[in-house]
Fold:
Amino acid sequence: MLTDYYGNYLTTSTGLARDNYDIGLRAFLSANYGSQEAFSQAVEADPNFALAYLGLARSLMSAGQLAEAKKALGKAKHMLGDVTDREKSHFQCCELILLGKTKKAKAAVNTHVLEWPRDAMIAQMNTSVFGLIGFSGEIGRENDLLEYTEKLLPHYGDDWWMTSMHAISLCETGQTLKAMQLMEKALSLNSRNANAAHFFAHILYEENEVAAGRNYLGAWMPNYDRRSLLHGHLSWHQALWALHDGDEDTMWQIVDGSVSQEISSSLPINALTDTASIYYRAELAGYNVASERWLKLSEYAADKFPTMGQSFADIHAALAHAMAGNDEYLNKLVEGNAGFAGDTVPAVATAWKAISEGNWQKAEKELGKASSDFERFGGSRAQRDLLEFTYVNVLLRLGKKEDAQKTLLERRPNLYNTAPIAALSTAKI
Structure:
């Protein structure tokens, strides 16, 4: 029996199918373009290759093609009769996540990796800040993620993918020095691992290394296929650093060329959250954001996320709707309670509405309600500090200079001297 890149037995007798499966596996884990094509070629080489269909399903899902992903899942289901126990369990995990049963999927993954820790396609589901742990809506998710990768790490040795996954777990728990060392190792093993390049950018952000970050991604990005999953989000990191540098022209060039929902090749959740975030950060920095931008983004959010349920997307959709004056969709989020952090979304949505109306007292009250639960929304620290910066700005608007300084020092001390908040420069002691 043939094995995959990580030594797991595969129910296929076709070497070409196995080879294409491995190409798809590595492309998927490194967030490079080409996984769909490779898994499709594996299926062509062996039409009875269940795991190739599952790899294709995962790739289609990552590209936002859910209907096609479910079709591939259905084909895999018909081929489970003679496969190994690992492959059957692999299917069950994939089925749960494709059906949106995220809590059950997370538990199934945890069980699966106890017996087959090197089944990277399944282990991947619970890793990173956008995985099932990251979007669990639970307090302590960052520590949970660290515990998860710590248990898996010994099974992988000097593996470029798992090394980068553990590094981001360290970064998100504040262990940036250890994270930096591991991420440099991961990149030395595979310099074109986009996940590692992404996480390296996060580490540099947490260390407030603006020049180093701009230089690194400036050199790394030209060889990264625009069709790849992380191209838009890595461009967001570039735009964010340009903003921190006061380089407004470059920021807008990057936003309009790679980040905005109108141009991004990223998933809708990334296109929405990245665009909303950079727009409002620009406003916090004192730059003008044309009302047309917010209107178009609000329309996009209403189209892609018409109902509440994905809390990280919901709070950014609420921002877009508030700034665009789209009360119809904003009120659904103000009045709703759905999703992994759905109980906290209304407070943030109400705060955005208050901010758009200049009601700073109400904004302070609502953000104060949610401030202890920001972690539950998911995403990275770098993404969530939009909320912290917003809260600081609200306090400054109310003349609460000391409270604003204290908040920033407690929550984002690494960025205290460079946080792009226009009113902050005149409020520092």
